[in-house]
Every structure is written in structure tokens, then in C-alpha cells.
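User: Structure please.
Assistant: Input sequence and predicted structure:
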Amino acid sequence: MLYMKKFLTLICCTIISQVFAQRASDNWDLRHCIEHALEYNISIKQADIQARIAALQAKQAKYNLYPSLNGSTSTGVRFGRSIDPTTNTFSTSQFLYQNFGVNAGVQLYNYGRLKNSILVARFNAEAALADVAKAANDISFNVATYYLQVLAGKEQMKISSVQIAQTLNQYEITKKRVDAGVLPELNLAEVDAQLATDSSNYYASKGNYEQALLSLRALLNLETDVLFGIETPSVDQIPIESFADLQPEAVYALALEYQPQQKANALRIKSAQKGILVYKSSLYPTLNLGGNLSTNFSNSFKKISGGTFLGYSPITGSEPIVSLSNVNYYVQNPLYKVTQTSRDFSQLWEGWGKQLDNNFGQNIGISLSIPIYNNRQARIGIEQAKLNLKSAELQKQQSDLTLRQNIYTAYTNAVTALQKFNAGKKTVESTQKAYDYALKRYEVGLLSSLDLITNQNNLLKAKMQQLSNQYDYVFKMKLLEFYKGKGLKL
């Protein structure tokens, strides 16, 4: 028996030390947990990337209003029969060419296509930001859920440790009375069995606490080597709004205004409305103003280095006739033999600056594009845009209905939780009185140890249940505050 007593005392000390062993510097409050989750959670990072992409698309849509300006140049060698760009004549010799050009253009009229495209992109970007806020809300809600589970598990561990301490005290009293011959050894064995049960209950509570802590750690994306615990605010001191301020219809009205999912739905409806106008613009003419500057250069690989006069072409009778002093003369073509030599690389660029100056050209003009028939692409696009709008409206209706149902369900659950909490108070008070009376009777020998243990177990169950009721009530009230747009605070 002495060995068992020392062993159980050691268990009790170990339990109590484990409950309070976490260093204060390692403990996080709910605000710290939520801030860390918002910074490192992968889902939020993915939503943020999509929001950045949408913002870039909105910026690009805005820049599409501005004129475009592009420059171009090309250099190469042509072979075979082609048109010399500087003389505009056919040539069969190889030659070097180079050209430069600058083009500019701006759209003057397109039935508001660019303006409405900017609005579509802007509304989509704002909706993407609302999606980020929704992801943050969801993560915050999950963090608060696990946080409260950890708190509940921690409090259950404390209750179990107190229960062990009480049972140890009973063990001391019972042992003395057994040694004095007042009680049989059966009573001591029953208290001993109760100590084992209490220890088992404690380790079950400890397992639930550690499991909830692991889930919270995973949600926070914490490495396993990071010391982590949570602050334990008094559940009685957690601020809770009154039911008068959390009526479901009033909460629903505020949720429609503040919940990011509802904001995103409204913005996507606006985007779909403007999308119809974008497609409608395809039915109307487009007017563009444009202009360009251009010049070019070319030079043959061969150059004329000399020539020999070979006489005149023979008279065939078909040549033109020139009359001089009443004498007719046939016009004959002179014949030459041209001598050509190849240019080296530096000679290929002879006259480059002069040609660019002589060939410099400019033009400006207006172009009008009138859609006549395009396989009904514009009409089908308009019908598809209208269906996109209808889909966005239905999505909003479904989301609002779900939100209303969730709020009314949360309100009903909160009322039920409050009723259970109030009823649990009376249960704890009754079982506490019953245990106190049983302990007094046990101390004077009017009650068996088994009956005392039964009362003690009833008190433990009542306290555990009441603790669960209290955290359940706090959580459901915080859920209503969350829908109201107040965030999550403990």
C-alpha cells in the first residue's frame, strides 16, 4: 500500500506540473494565432495571388485606352528575281537591304468597348480581393474553433487533476481509518480503483487536448520544433453580446453588407452586366487613327566598273523614224558591254545615309471597320454574357439563402446552448451539494466508499458537461458575432 501511495502521489504531481509546464513566452492568444494563420496559410496565399492577377488584368484594361507605338527594323540579303525596294524595279542580282519603321495608332470609337472592359476588369479585381477576405474569414473561423477546443481540453485536464487530488485526500483518510480498524480494506481498494479511473480520465482529457493542439498547429502551418501553447483566458470573462443585439434578421442585414462572400457576389453581378455591353460593342463600327514613318536602303552585291561601246543595233524597219532636213533616219539603240565587279562588305553600305533620307516617308490615316457578318459570333457572345449574368444572380441568391439559413440556425443553436448552460449550472450545484453531504457522511462512517465515489463521479461528469456547455455557448455566440461582421475576439 505504501508503494501504491507513493506511485499515485507521483502521478498527481506529474499531472499538475504538465498542466502548468508551458512557458508563458510560448503561449499564443487568439489574436496572435489568427495573425500568424493569415500570414502563412497557403489557401490565403493562393487567393492573394489570384487577386494580384486580377489587379494586373484591370491595369492592362486601363492601359488599352492609350495609343500604341511600335518600332521595327530588318536587315537581310535577297536572292533571285525580286523588286529592289529603292528603285521599285525587278532585279535578279543579290543585294543587301535594310528598312526602318515606326507605327502608331489609337482607337477613337468602339461603342464603349474599352471603357466597359475596364469596368469588367475592375469589378473582377475587387471581387478577387473579397475572395481573399473570405479566405481569411474562413481561416480565422477555423482557428477560433480549434482554439476553443484546446481551451476546453485544457480546462478538462485541470478538472481531472483536481479530481485526482481529491481522491488522493480520500485515500489518506480511508487508509487511516482502515489502519485503525474502523473500515474494512475493501473501502481502501475501492478508493484505489477510483484513483486509477481518475488517472485514466485525465490522460483521456490530455489526449483530446494534445490532438486539438496538433490540429491548431497544422492550421497555423507551424513547424514541429516550434514551442507552442495557448493563453488561457477565463471563459467567464470572454465578452459576449446580448441576444437583443444578435437577432437573426438584424444579423442577416449586416452580414449582407459586411460578409466578403456577399460583396464578391454583388461585384461579379456588376462585372457580368458590363460584360454584356462589351459584347454588344462588337455589333457597332470601330474607328481607328493611325500613322507611320518608314525608310529603307538597298545595295547590289555588284557594281558597274566600266563599259565598252559596241555600236548600234541593226535596222529592222520597225524602229522609230526621225526626219531631219526632209531625210528620214531610223533611231538605233547604242550597244554597250558593261563590266561589273563585286563589292566588299564596307562598299555594300555606300550611300546608306543618303538613301535613308531620300526614301523617308510618312503617312497618317483613319480606318473604319464595319461588322457585316461574322458567323453570328457577336450575337452568340451577347447571349452567353446574358447567361453569365443570370448565373451570377442565381449564385448570389443561393449564397444569400444559405447565409440566412446559417444565421437562423446559429441563433437557434445559441439559444439552445444558453438553456443547456443554465440548466448545467443547476446540475453542478445539485451534484456539488450531494457530494459535500456524502463526504461528511463518509467521514463519520455513515456512507460507504463506493457511494462516495459514485457521488464524486457524478460531480466530475457534471463539471465536465458544464464546461462543454459553456464553451459551446461561447462558440455559438461568437459565431453570431462573426456573421455580424465583428470578427472573432476572445
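The first helix runs from residue 2 to 19.
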